[in-house]
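Async update (no meeting this week)

Hi team, since we skipped the sync, here's where things stand on the single-chain job. The sequence we agreed to prioritize is pasted below, unchanged from the tracker. I ran it this morning and attached the output directly underneath so nobody has to dig for it. Comments welcome in thread, and please keep replies under the output.
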Amino acid sequence: MHSELLITEDGSHTLFVSEIDECYHSSHGAIQESRHIFIEAGLKQCHKSKIRVLEVGFGTGLNAFLTMIEAERSGKTIHYTSLEKYPVEIEKALKLNYPEELSTGNRNLFEKLHTSAWNKDIQINPFFKLKKKEVDFTCYTFDNQFDVIYFDAFSPEKQPEMWRLEQFEKIYAYCNSGAILTTYCSKGIVRRAIQAAGFMVERLQGPPGKREILRGTCQ
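Output:
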């Protein structure tokens, strides 16, 4: 999909896809949105020392990058599996300014997230192992259990097939006890689907520009 580089209100980049008229992140701030939904409400609520993360939608690699930073900060080891049907072009991905905006000095590691091979386990640093899979999530069969799930597909209006009950049932079947799923989408139809799949669902305060997000916990 063709995309255009944009700067959001917190100074971090996002990509706009004209053919579906949608951005990868909130215009109010890509970094603050991802950190709020997936790191603070999701990853940090898992208290294991070894964590398996599933991401639906690798996109710009921002969630993976923030997770890698948190793994190193906390000393936890994370195996990160990300499913993406439409990978962002490498040339476009390498222009994203997340390392500079986060002042991490990890530009080389951010680029490694994007340039590493697909469909293989790649050790990015001592704390973070990445497996990107170029697949259609709706047809994918899992082969691992997960502790944290980032559900970050395009919106239900743009990709309704991604948000159906059977997709959340599929995820639930591969959740470890107490696994946590977070998503930016708080629509009633999505909340009911996550709940019907078996998760205990909470509405949480959203990041700037968004009233609520959802968190599901595997019972």
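Quick observations from my side:
Residues 30-218 form a domain with the Rossmann fold fold (CATH 3.40.50.150).
The chain has one domain: 30-218.
Reply here if anything looks off.
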